[in-house]
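User: quick one - fold this with molybdenum atom bound?
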Amino acid sequence: MKLRLPLRLPPPPFPAFSGRLHDARTATAVGRVLGAAVAVCFVTGLVSHVLQHPPAALADGLPSRPAWGYRLSQGLHVASGTAAVPLLLVKLWTVYPRLFARPLLRSVRHALERLSVAVLVASALFELFSGLFNTAQWYPWPFSFVPVHYAAGWLLAGSLLLHVAVKAPEIAAHWRRRSPGTLSLPAGDATDRRSLLLATGAAAGAVTLTTAGQSLTPLKGLDLLAPRHPDHGEEGLPVNRTAARAGVTAESVRDWKLYVGGPRPYEMTLDDLRAMPQTEVTLPIACVEGWSKAARWTGVRVRDLLDRAGAPEGALIRVTSLERHGAYRVMVMPHTYARDPLTLLALRLDGRELPPDHGYPARIIAPNRPGVLQTKWVSRMEAL
Ligand SMILES: Nc1nc2c(c(=O)[nH]1)N[C@H]1C(S)=C(S)[C@@H](COP(=O)(O)O)O[C@H]1N2
Ligand SMILES: [Mo]
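Assistant: Sure. Structure tokens for the protein plus molybdenum atom:
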């Protein structure tokens, strides 16, 4: 049998869709808010990726200021991604009747356009839900989150740009309520649409307001749905990986010494470190999963420790934790951070000795860096 285009299929057993909740005006009205949320999410995601995994060419130029930069950017990343979840679901509901449009494939061009929409929908669902699961530290998949979430982000951005370009005439025709394509609406349909859009806005606003408090402390009273509350944890600061889970015990820190490597390497005990000039800074831990909290840290400036070892100004610094295994055992710090006067090897948190879960005997705290790079239980620092 020869296949002929357009395909002639039997009439679908599906319901007919009437009313205007599934029309181009509704799709445009939801789509432009969703598009804005995805754009914010994409840009802040790039910022996060560059700060966490700097490409060699950029590593030396990464700024250590503003100190709250990563906190703001990652807060926006998680908030815009969260807001996008209800927006995406409503958008998909608005356009799903098109799945039943016949003929299935009108032309090669039409087939390509449908394929690009399939990629768009798949990558959007994947990005939003993998991100959401990551905020809950739930990884129900066999691959590692960061590289796959990053790659799919580009797929989403590309297929979204293509979609906007293909739909540009329709988007323009339905951009405003009184656009030419929208004028002939029966009054009742317009009310339905307004209700849908209001409910969608309320849902997106509600999930954002009840989770943004995990990083935006003035809203922490409303933080009902976020997996983390900024005040819950040892010393009122959340903990991602406890000392117990990292295998750091009282035994393993008993004879602790810090090794500092450079042209004049040396070792220091905790008492030696306490005898050095101490600096106090207020800096946030801003976790890539979206929670963040500022705290008061006291300790020795990293640059003082490096100078003592004769480390060159521009050297890349490798910091190693006592922890035996774990993705964050070794961290590399460009000189812009290592030389910043706010960057400490912290010994105290809010005026008290560091609790084991926050990195006793010593941990790194640096401005404008993701939480994953604020290494706890530090045992070595070396100029590379
Ligand atoms: N050695 C080590 N340091 C680490 C981690 C880790 O798993 N191992 N987790 C990091 C992560 S993901 C975050 S968000 C911060 C959290 O710091 P806190 O537990 O003191 O709040 O520590 C970072 N430092
Ligand atoms: Mo983190």
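One thing worth noting: The pocket of molybdenum atom (ligand 2) is lined by residues 240, 287-289, 371-372 (CB under 6 Å).
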